[in-house]
Amino acid sequence: MATVEFGAGATPVETPTAAAPETQAEQQPNQSQALTRPLLGDFLPAFRDVLLPSLQIAHPVGEVGRSHIHGSVVYDGRIHLYEPADIDMSTGTVRRPATKPFTVTFLGFETPSYREKVKGGLGGLLVKTEQQVTAAGGTLDYQEWELKKTSGMKYFEPTTKAMVAIERPEHLPDDGSLFVHEVNGLKYTFAFWTFKASAYTAACKRVLFTAKLTGCLQKGYPTFSFAASTRLTPFRNGNAAWLPVLVPNKPSTPEFIAFVQQVLKG
Questions:
Q1: Which domain holds residue 55?
Q2: Does residue 122 form part of some domain?
Q3: Whole-angstrom Cα distance, residue 221 to residue 106?
Q4: Section 85-104 average pLDDT
């Protein structure tokens, strides 16, 4: 595996040759001087210096859903990692088959916080603890909020962001422009994936956090990959939403673990 460096020290630059004594003309103010060699850009950025693309599920509402197939998992607002099947529910005819679930490895999570649910989905308070939810006059219990919202109670939903490594899906070209990190013959790229509300419950509470405590992730998030897709999931109130589906896939190889450690060190 070729060595990949993120945020390491700069490459040594050749020591400049001592300049000849300046002439009278060279000492004149505001007179530019030609460089004898070009400046070399040796800075290697760390992850703190870059903005990673995000993964988003395309919903009927929202910017991504206006231009992408609903239920798709979209990388950087433009590339479909996964597309669900298009089925004529009246006849059962499959108009478009689903793509294969893509393989994702979770590298780590931010500490969950709590966002106030507001009409339109924009704005609202963001607090760090359950105690702050209560202090703000809110609750995490949807049924309690339903009973008390007319009296001014706020409803908060958990949210967290994960850094993930994505294995190149078979349907995307291997052109060296996106999936550029090779480990064990497989190509990867990186992104952030934010989970909130029902997606937080489906992905984090039911799968990832449970696996971290009692299942295949006990040795660390990067030690096991998952097959990722989506499912249109109905709610008790009659609504439905596309939620992430994560199924344990396979243990990570020692080479992949070493690569991830190198990446996370930045």
A1: 48-110+160-265
A2: no
A3: 6
A4: 92
Return the higher-pLDDT residue of 8 and 172. 172
pLDDT tens track for 101-131: 999 999 999 999 999 999 877 778 999 999 9
Q: What tokens were used for 154? A: 């706020």
Would you say 111 and 161 are in contact if contact means Cβ atoms under 8 Å apart? Answer: no
What distances in angstroms separate CA 173 from CA 57, 99, 101, 168, 212, one per listed residue? 21, 14, 16, 8, 33
Counting every residue, how long is the chain?
266
Phi, psi torsion values for 212, nearest 5 degrees: -70, -35
User: Under 8 Å CB-to-CB from 127, ≥6 apart: which residues?
Assistant: 113, 114, 133, 136, 156
Single-letter amino acid, residue 121: G
Q: What is the pTM of this model?
A: 0.79
Q: Look at the chain and report how many structural domains it folds into.
A: 1
